[in-house]
Amino acid sequence: MAKLNRLRARFVQIQNIKKMTNVMEMIANAKIPKIKNQFKSAQEYFENLDYIFQNIVNNLGSKIDEFIKTESKKNLYIIFGSNLGFCGALNNLIIKKITPKLKENDEIIVFSKKIYNFLSINQSKLIIKYYQNIEESNFSEPILQVTNLIYQAILAKKYNKILICYNKFISIIHSKPQVHNLLEFQKNIIKYDGYGPEFEPSAAEVFEKLMPFYIKSVLEKLFIESKLVETSARRASMESATENASEILRKLELEINSSRQTMITQEIIEIISGKM
To answer: What is its subcellular localisation (predicted)?
Structure first.
């Protein structure tokens, strides 16, 4: 009887876990289309702005180095990750990718509670800004703050590299940790048949004025992409957890039935033995 009670209690516990994972899977499923639309809009805006920006870079040629070349050895890392768990190894993959590269004079801006908790153990002195509970619905103000910080740092030639660490969306079930160098521009990737575009008052001035918009569009695109990867990973994790819970419940049900049948058989034997 005691064994049967333990099995029934375990069955109820697994049922409750299954309900929770099923609800979390449904929430993630509901959020994915909305974040996908956000990502599509951010990507289209970035691609159009990037085309204009690349035209300016082409026009400037080697003069682009006057804006970004610096003698500083310090790097700035901007890290996008998740605030909540249940999304697989996304945060661990980013941590493994960047921690070997960190130097004692580098600086870090973190958009992730989980990654901040890890980095604050050994690299707390490197963290200059930390944003927690920033999601796809309330990211505009923090992104604008970081944009202004980066723009002022570029003008002051404070950093050698500005590296954005995020999870790249490949498909609903696949992603890859990436590090994007914001100050790495590809030159001469746009070929003109005749004359290229002319910029007034000059390409250099347009570049300087357009830079904040470019930085903001990159940050927004990569932040939303990270959130899309996180939500997709959480949906997959919760789907797997729900399936595992269903399998455990099936086995427990068989074990409960077997235990109950054994107990009934034992009682029948005792009754027959008593009559004899």
So the answer is: Membrane
Neighbour order of strands in the sheet with 107-111: 127-130, 107-111, 75-80, 161-171, 174-181
pLDDT in tens, 185-228: 765 555 555 566 777 777 788 888 889 999 999 999 999 999 99
Residue 195: the pLDDT is: 60
Rounded Cα gap, residues 123 and 108, in angstroms: 9
> How far apart, in Å, are the Cα atoms of 74 and each of 103, 105, 108, 109, 126?
8, 6, 11, 14, 11
Domains, in order of start, for the chain: 1-16+238-274 (1.10.287), 19-237 (3.40.1380.10)
3-state secondary structure 203-267: HHHHHHHHHHHHHHHHHHHHHHHHHHHHHHHHHHHHHHHHHHHHHHHHHHHHHHHHHHHHHHHHH
Query: Which of 83-87, 92-96, 213-217, 236-240 has the weakest average pLDDT?
Result: 83-87
DSSP-based three-state secondary structure for 135? coil
What is the pLDDT confidence band of residue 275, given thresholds at 50, 70 and 90?
low
* Residue 196: predicted pLDDT: 62
Residue 187 near residue 61 (C-beta atoms within 8 A): yes
- Inter-residue contact 101 to 71 (CB < 8 Å): no
Handedness of CA 225, 228, 234, 235 (dihedral sign): negative
Cβ neighbour number for residue 147 with a 10 Å cutoff: 20
